[in-house]
């Protein structure tokens, strides 16, 4: 019995050490590298799309999406700097982490939800574009798209107000491990008194909405892919070429935006696996080290999603690629 108990403790220790090592590799190296690449990529995307102009409604959506993704990556980079600080001083790293978690939490959640809503708008616009090419320009005008995006921003900002500076606060107290004053994160009295409602809204409603959005995007992506397959076959006829020319339906743009939607669905799979794991296997998944590891792994996929769009545009849009070259090309003297 004693041997089995010691073996169990040793296995738990090994598993914890492995999880901590993987968590450090993800948070300190992979995530920081991904965010830096994404910040540069989305900054370039904003510059290029501004140069291309706002005549096309799709450009307005992509410009707004790049701005939201850039904001998310910047705040994620700021929060993950705590792992760099921890290499030099764990005490100050924990203080830094307490303040960033307390005051940047809502700025982590809001851009993710707004970005997801942008993908829904993109998939809806492309679905109508491939099925109703002659009428989509009447439905998705610059004005209607702008008003839709403003509504998306306002909806999520208002919905997340309970988490703005009323969720947690930082307090200082004595810590025996460091033998000095230390920071602690505590829930506010207002949050504790409304914890049941806020927990239901935060973990059930928001996760359910994002899940439904992902399912909706996946369904529309399948319909778009099927329609594009049919249109590509028909495009060999001269009659259809004329129809396509008159309707301004660009199959290349549709394919590019379809890839954006597919990448979004792929990168959000871990979020839903983790979400269902919390409620299906509460004893195992809610282990502290494993919980942190899964949460950071989820952030990696979110960062990859925000970073990937720039490379999709460059590889699949000759117009975007050409504008990038012209914008940053340095002529030899």
From TrEMBL:
Membrane topology: Multi-pass membrane protein
One cellular-component annotation, GO: plasma membrane
One Pfam entry name: 7tm_1
Ranges that cross the membrane: 24-48, 60-78, 98-123, 144-165, 200-226, 256-280, 300-316
GO MF annotations, alphabetized: G protein-coupled receptor activity
Classification via PANTHER family: G-PROTEIN COUPLED RECEPTOR (PTHR24243), THYROTROPIN-RELEASING HORMONE RECEPTOR (PTHR24243:SF233)
InterPro entries xrefs: GPCR_Rhodpsn, GPCR_Rhodpsn_7TM
Domain spans labelled G-protein coupled receptors family 1 profile: 41-313
Protein name: G-protein coupled receptors family 1 profile domain-containing protein
Localization per record: Membrane
Main location: membrane
Entry keyword set: G-protein coupled receptor, Membrane, Receptor, Transducer, Transmembrane, Transmembrane helix
